[in-house]
Amino acid sequence: MEIALYQPDIAPNVGTLMRLGACLGAAVHIIEPCGFPFGAKDLRRAVMDYKDLADVTRHISWEAFTAATEGQRKILLTTRAAISHTEFEFEDTDILLLGRESAGVPEEVHQNVDGRVVIPMQSGARSINVALSASMVLGEALRQTNGYPIIAKAKET
Description:
The chain has helices spanning 11-24, 41-47, 62-68, 107-111, 130-144, 149-156; strands spanning 2-6, 27-31, 56-59, 74-77, 95-98, 115-117. By secondary structure, the chain is an alpha/beta fold. It has one domain: Alpha/beta knot. A six-stranded parallel sheet has the order 3-2-1-5-4-6. It is globular, with a radius of gyration of 15 Å.
């Protein structure tokens, strides 16, 4: 399971997602440009000392990202989806795609993904923070695919 951030705006969210990926064994893709300098202090503070554990790949564009990840399903987290993340059937090689905090993803990206999922929310709520959304959906995807590191380790013994 992997995470991809489309042109992220907020450095602390990226740092938090890098830390999440490091802890749960999920590679993180950053699709540039970012709305902040990549080495920003806020990013470093959020990722803490997990930077060396994180598997992070930066891509210069959407096209570069899709070329590098050809053959893997891209699953977009969006409020415009018709299926809940708990009803979707994840595969262990999926990439969970998150849009910009300020604008989501453009229509071209929306139309060129392999699946779309929504987190059910209270009526009137617009969206959940991108890092929180990723953690919720990643948790469900890892549960479905038996991909949690502890579960995988326990199965080996």
